[in-house]
Design a protein that fits this description.
3% strand, globular, 3-stranded antiparallel sheet, single chain, 312 residues, mainly alpha, disordered C terminus, disordered N terminus
């Protein structure tokens, strides 16, 4: 993989060696500063996930091994049976590796370790009859981040390797929505949209923010059709490229998930972390600097009237 400096100089890899410029959507150069920020977020989410959002995974350490029914990938690979020792070793090795990787040191070695350990953690999680679909984009992000190499928060270089990695994550985020809609129709038929899917969810898990919708005829059925339409239209997000459009897309997607959480207390946090890869993080320092230096502002955040004399 190669990189292209943001200054417009001939394409170079991240070590500065000349390289042939690749063209096309998959290899549009991405600033390495964006990778550095997203990588920190992605790796710091690991302990949050292990200890808070999916703390139930470590409970499998106490489950008899005969209940372990590995996923297909777990049958193809020589993965260990999750005994108590295996579960606890994977758990702590994963957390320690993620915290080390979040520092940006040894990005390929530590990043690969995080991906492999989290992959095993997910096999342990999903091999007891429950398979979640909100983790594939996050898992893919962990898989591609080590391919980029070193990146720092203030790194002004652009990299085609980074562009490829972020494109892969974006496509996976898109497919998560599109295939969710396909699965709804494949397994539920069009009755999913015309039936009482959301009504049942709100009756079971509704909150003060959603209970009122049960009293509005046709509202939830319309919401089901709207959800299907938006999910089937997910490939359109691949056309989004400008910074403002990316920010608007992220706000829309995260707003959707916040709305779902407010209504039925379901949140896809790993998927939301993957969505953050779309944000042009490299623009944050410049935006903050412009905010601090806007007219009428002083270093102490106090406005100085125009024409006022400076203190002695």
């Amino acid at each position: 993989m190669s990189g292209t400096p943001s200054s417009g100089a001939p394409a170079t890899d991240v070590a500065g060696a000349p390289s042939a410029r690749r063209h096309g959507w998959w290899f549009r150069p991405v600033p390495l500063a964006r990778i550095a920020v997203f990588r920190t977020i992605a790796y710091l989410f690991v302990p949050v996930d292990v200890f808070l959002t999916t703390a139930w995974v470590r409970a499998h350490a106490a489950v008899p091994t005969e209940y372990y029914q590995p996923l297909t990938i777990g049958q193809l690979l020589p993965l260990p049976t999750p005994t108590a020792t295996v579960v606890h070793v994977v758990q702590w090795a994963l957390v320690l590796a993620a915290l080390a990787a979040a520092t940006g040191r040894a990005p390929r070695l530590l990043g690969t370790a995080v991906f492999l350990l989290y992959f095993e953690w997910m096999v342990i999680a999903m091999s007891y009859g429950k398979v979640d679909h909100d983790r594939i984009a996050y898992l893919v992000a962990l898989a591609v981040l080590p391919t980029i190499g070193r990146a720092r928060w203030r790194d002004r270089r652009s990299s085609e390797a980074a562009g490829w990695a972020m494109a892969v994550v974006l496509v996976t985020v898109m497919l998560t929505y599109f295939l969710a809609a396909w699965a709804k129709i494949r397994f539920g038929g069009w009755d999913w949209a015309t039936g009482s899917t959301l009504t049942r969810a709100i009756v079971r898990r509704g909150t003060v923010f959603s209970d009122w919708t049960l009293e509005v005829p046709g509202l939830l059925a319309a919401a089901q059709w709207a959800m299907l339409a938006l999910e089937f239209a997910a490939p359109l997000m691949l056309l989004v490229w400008s910074a403002r459009a990316r920010i608007a897309l992220v706000v829309f997607l995260l707003g959707f998930h916040v709305m779902v959480f407010a209504g039925v207390s379901i949140i896809f946090l790993p998927h939301c972390v993957a969505i953050l890869s779309i944000v042009p993080w490299e623009r944050v320092p410049g935006a903050a600097r412009r905010l601090r230096n806007r007219p009428g502002r002083r270093p102490g955040n106090a406005a100085q009237p125009a024409g006022a004399a400076s203190p002695d």
